[in-house]
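Page 42, continued from yesterday. The earlier attempt failed because a stray header line got pasted into the input along with the sequence. Redoing it now with the clean sequence only.
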Amino acid sequence: MRLERPQWPGGKKCAAMITINLNAELFWLQLDQTCVNMPKTLSLGQYGMNRGLDRILDILDDKGIKATCFTPGWVAEQYPDKILEVHGRGHEIGALGYRHENMALLSVEEQEEAIRKGAEAIGRLCGIRPRGFRSPEGELTLDTLRIARKHGMVYSSNLCDDDRPYVKDLGDGASILEIPIHWVNYDLPYFAFNYHPAFPAGQGRIANYTGVLSNWKDEFSGCHEYGLCYVLQLDPAAIGAPGRIGMLEELIDHINDLGGVWWATGEEMYRYYSGCGGKH
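This time it went through. Structure tokens are written below.
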């Protein structure tokens, strides 16, 4: 069966989104709460906010690209100047729970508390309510998406079942736009490493930079050929290192060289689809 090609604004051939997960030290705290007393482990996430993020933002400014930055509410409270800088440079702020929770391990009530607190923290700081939702690396449930929709989020970027945005029926009379993601286009699984808590559990990584960049270019080339939506996930602690940040610049140049690309934020994607510009 031939896959239906989406239609993109202005006759563009494909779409591309850069998304940034601003987890700070919460990624490590989710793995092991005793990390609160491990300054070395916490510093792995703090580096992303204190050093890596600025490098990403500077490249995006140079290339004229706006990203979608998902942040937990706790990070908005702990790093207000950084989140305000992201917002002030014109990037979208989306929600990522409150403390990087594994939503599938929580009750419906606990999920709602985390999503509500996260959205409210962003609202207090930036003066806007987030329109997009991404769950942390752990699993989510259909209730997670229903709660996000209840609290004003109109799109999700969580699932891996397509490479085109689509409207997902939430089974309660509501729906949400899903903008799918794929692990291959996420920097953290390639580069995150720590001895304790052990990540990855079997150790034996950091990946070769040239190989990762080749993966990303090949994935985009496929999306470009078939007219799909390429979603890149970045963590400032991974891509923001001085030896890796050039990968982002080279990838963007590769994407622009192929041409015919609509660079979009999540909210722009939602507005396009809600206006029936894309085929649902």
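Notes: The chain has one domain: 9-274.
Reminder to self: strip header lines before submitting.
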